[in-house]
Amino acid sequence: MGVINFFRKTFVIAELEMRKIFHDPTEIIMRAIQPALWLLIFGQVFARMHAIPGQTNYIDFMTPGILAQSVLFVSIFSGIAIIWERDLGLIHKLLATPTPRASIVLGKAISAGLRTLPIVVIIYLLAILLGVHIDWSPLSLLGVLVMIMLGAIFFSTFSLIIACLVKTRERFMGIGQLLTMPLFFASNAIYPTEIMPGWLKVISHMNPLTYMVDALREMITGVASGFTLSFDFLVLLIASVLFVAIGGVLYKRVII
Amino acid sequence: MSILRTDKLTRAFGNFTAVDSLDIAVAKGEIFALLGPNGAGKSTALKMLTTLLPPTSGDAYINDYSIRTQTNEIRKIIGYVPQMLSADGSLTAFENLSLFAKLYDIPSRERKQRVHEALKFMGLENFEHKLVKTYSGGMIRRLEIAQSTLHQPSVLFLDEPTTGLDPIGRKVVWEHIVALQKQFSTTILFTTHLMEEADEICSRVALMTRGKLAIVGSPKELKASLGDSEATLDDVFIHYTADKLAESGSSFHDVSVERKTTRRLG
Which of A29, A121, B89, B125 is the most buried (most CB within 10 A)? Predict the structure, then answer.
């Protein structure tokens, strides 16, 4: 009963967030522009440099990385909504209802994942245009969707935890900007970890984005990458469950 | 028989005690106000009673459930309308209500009817599919009350429910709150610093100052306590808080919240 109630409430929170997007979808379209620019400009130039040893088709290599980057960028700033909602009193009202705190956190995290899905479609369309070799098997596509949801849940909950701790928009934006670049560049999104110096390789192995990109690369292009798929999914699943639990504890503190 | 009682309810933030050993009891079906200057501890008391903030010491009981140990039971039987405008402006009234109906575990077969009844009760039935950001301030407040009473709570808490509303908006909101109490015997506990509202509507009021209870009683009793037949509740307020007012005043946060709410109400 407790588990059913938890997931039922989680989906109500996700529904609430999704309805807002249906009323005003412009945000989604705007967010798709940045990954498109990465693929069309950065990707095209970098592919001609042949900077990565043994890499024959850089766009194939980069596309899963840009997909993960989109999820990271959409999710890592989603926590600011908590600060807005606190100032508007929405959180106070929500916390006074019989809704588990972790349901609110997970519901919002799922909605962050759903927000990225239109971007996924746009990146797939661009990938077709750019001639990326895509694995169209249903299992791979499903795996991509699940990994994107897991990544969004992890990074948006990370963002929510930061918002609960820093409590002001100004501090949140500062920390968000500070985190995004290291998370992105200390991963295998646009170059393999093999060419990194030893210290950066260690950091990249502690970065969940690395495992997300690793899994997406294997499932999108069908070429086996560094870790096994099951290991990649396990890392993201454990990290997400841990962060949702921490977020559930911290969420109520945002109003104090 | 009290539906709500507090037992030395206390909340401190570091060295500052916002609510200090508060003891009040509210009877079933009563309309009860917590009065006091900004910073007196009214909102903090309300946050504890609505389970948003745990007490530092003491306890409170609603329908005999403890706010310390039975928070989930309490959340099922209370409604809460915060001072800020808490309805979601980017959703329609119907969506705001039906999503909260789900959060309050109202069975799906009853949900639609309950939402329509609540909208009708608050005079919003003709605006149910309009985005809430197009509503007037008074309409938003009525919608919020509808949202917090869908599950027919035993106690409805309202924090400064008429802040920023024009006189007509205030009047309509109070008419609906009183109707709610009459029709469903809902116990209403609200905070305000508008004395005339409390005087007109409440069966009893509690006056707080600096986190402590200064006096509690019916508006008539409190006015009589001054020994002046023409005394108003404003006079009572000044009498019991004046010596502290000069140095208390509103905090930056209080003023900021109030101005934001007023600005949103247009």
Answer: B89
Name the 3-class secondary structure at B56: coil
Spell out a b/e string for A162-179, using b for 16 or more CB atoms within 10 Å of the CB, else e: bbbebbeeeebeebbeeb
The pLDDT of residue B65 is above 90 = yes
Question: Which pTM does this prediction carry?
Answer: 0.86
Q: C-alpha distances in angstroms, A85 versus A129, B160, B211?
A: 40, 19, 27
A16 close contact with B: CB closer than 8 A: yes
Helix crossing, A229-251 with A101-129: angle to 10°?
140
Query: Which DSSP string do the residues of B81-116 spell out, in sequence order?
Result: E-SS--S-TTSBHHHHHHHHHHHTT--HHHHHHHHH
**What's the pLDDT band for B221 if we cut at 50, 70, 90?**
very high
Best CA proximity match to B158, nearest among B82, B96, B44: B82
Q: Please check whether residue B23 touches A, CB under 8 A.
A: no
**What is the domain count for chain A?**
1
Model ipTM?
Answer: 0.86
Q: Is A93 on the interface with B (CB under 8 A)?
A: yes
Residue A54 has a pLDDT of 67
Q: Report chain B's C-alpha Rg in angstroms.
A: 18
* Candidate from A16, A89, A92 with C-beta closest to B99: A16
- The token pair that represents A223 in the structure block: 């070429």
Residues spanned by the domain of A72? 2-255
Residue B153 backbone phi and psi in degrees, to 5: -70, 155
